[in-house]
Amino acid sequence: MSSEFDNMIRPTDVPAGLWADIKQRDASFVMPGHHCHSCYELFFVMSGTCRFIIGENMVDLQAGDGIMITPYRLHFTRYLFDVCRRVAVFFREEDIDSRTRPQMPMPDFFADTRIFRTPEAHREEMIQLYERITRESERKDSYREALQSIQLQELMLQISRFCQVVTEVPAELHSTDESLVSVAHFINEHYMDSISAADIASASGFSPNYLSRKFRQLAGVGLHEYLAFVRLQHAAAQLLETQDPVTQIALRCGFSSSNYFKDAFKKKYGITPRSYRKCKGR
Fold this sequence. Notes:
alpha+beta, six-stranded antiparallel sheet, 9 helices, three-stranded antiparallel sheet, Jelly Rolls, Arc Repressor Mutant, subunit A
């Protein structure tokens, strides 16, 4: 098997149920690389700034900004500018109450990554709510689960009440980052083709060796790993959105064979493509 999947990005585990933690980061903190989770992540900047790289997009988050990342979405955080205090809340789709969903800013709010901004007038109130959720995550008594469920509904409703959902990802990029976004865009546009590192380098105007080093330095993940991840994301979506045979989906998403695809898929998702389709309701 190709080494493309030898270092396949697997979902980073988080504790079962609702979980939250607050951390303070600065430029000395270096995230090992891109990662993803099998659940939603709600990331909120309490103070300072940070740079979020997600898919082919990059955005600088300021105090009061938040981003909700859907399960299995590749992302990476960098702290380039100043000290950043942030909170991350992890939850599952089933944790969202049926009474909460209709109150969200849009019917398909949980279907995709969302960026939202909290007006300064309501920022302290939201920070206090995040702090309460985090404190509850640290408790071990029998009240925790029920209280966390209530707090999660409150958090979602307050986001809907106070926050502005950003419909387009801002392009607050430096020149070196723009080249990275260009490479990521090329991969997302051509993942279904038989492309190599040389093809990607040629399209971006860099030598293959330079691009490989620069991409890993800026994005935190290798070119082949990123290409593999993009292909698997599209394949997973097609497994749920179509009834097409697994082999057809594999070839359409750029994999050289169905067996190659099945091995890579199981490494990432922990189950076979057919089991994934079945457990998701297909």
